[in-house]
Amino acid sequence: MISLDDTSQTEAAEPVRKRRRRRLRWFRWMAAATTLLVTAMLVGAYVWQPGEDGRAFRSPYLAQVGSRYADTPVARFHYVKAGTGSPVILLSPGGTSVIGWKDQLDALARDHTVYVVDLPGQGYTQVKDSGFEYDLDAMVSAIGTFMDTVGVRQAAMAGNSWSGGWALAFAQRHPGRVTKLALLDATGLDLPGTWMWEALKIPVVGELAVKLSTGKSTVRRLAEGMMVNKSRVTDQLLDEWWAPMTFHDNIRATYLLERRLDWAQTERALPTTTTPTLVMWGRQDTVQPVDRAHRFAELLPNEQLQILDGCGHAPQLDCPDPVSRHLQTFFADS
């Protein structure tokens, strides 16, 4: 016989058992969802590749100025060349191509032989060395390899963003090969980047973030976010900027470079960097804040500082006329 007390206990236990079953179902659902999400992220990071849509793009700019290639065991370097006179080498801004110096090419070519080069992982250069490390040593070595291949022993040099840091490191390690150095909103200080760039250092997250950032609308937002004068981000410039960003080798290079570039090396060497240096910065830079220009100025023993109002992280595109004038003056007696 079942007593009233036993019946009451059974009825009281029933809601507890239901809650436990609900919690168990919830945990199982969360475990399944988490597993699915992690699997999808891993597949996206290490298996899936976005389409290289930019391969079909035919650059009007390159058709106008003429692409050249320098074949080496390291890479088939893509570059453009114009003018005569003492050599000036412009390193394509990190993540873009030779289009990044489109306005300075002609301006500087009036007095100089100007080379604008895509380093490994940038623009249209094709890396041949499967073991290329995408670290500071490798990028510095690549600059020297390019110069040797095109027959330039010594040159003035300029870089913007990442390529400013690479130019700085090259000048520090090979001071006899760089007559003058221009750093435009450059990396090279041992300071963190924006949260967006710092996120690329996280495995899986970095791979996915770069792969998902190759759509043309995303590239437009990126470009406009870097520039104050957004009307300069024309459809023509956007196409030129976007196309090489879709190349799989360049995608891989982006997150590897963010993880492997050691700017502590370049900052430590700043006080002993003797190359005459022009530090030029957009006051409204949202990627490398303008206070970093002043830090470069404090640490470099032989520098000039120019702060450009109304300009962002890519001043040579954002404010091309003053940038060209300052570079012409600075490189005049290279």
Walk me through the structure:
By secondary structure, the chain is of the alpha/beta class. The protein folds into two domains: 1-48; 53-331, Alpha/Beta hydrolase fold, catalytic domain (Rossmann fold). Helix content is 48%, strand content 16%. The protein contains 14 helices and nine strands. The chain has helices at 4-46, 60-65, 102-109, 136-150, 162-173, 195-199, 205-211, 216-226, 235-242, 248-260, 263-269, 291-299, 315-318, 320-331, and strands spanning 68-71, 75-82, 86-91, 112-118, 126-127, 155-160, 178-184, 277-282, 303-308. Strands 1, 2, 3, 4, 5, 6, 7, 8 and 9 form a nine-stranded mixed β-sheet that branches. Helix 5 links the parallel strand 6 and strand 7 (178-184). Helix 1 (4-46) crosses helix 7 and helix 7 (205-211) packs across helix 10. The chain is elongated, with a radius of gyration of 26 Å. The N and C termini lie far apart (107 Å). The model has no long low-confidence stretch (mean pLDDT 93).
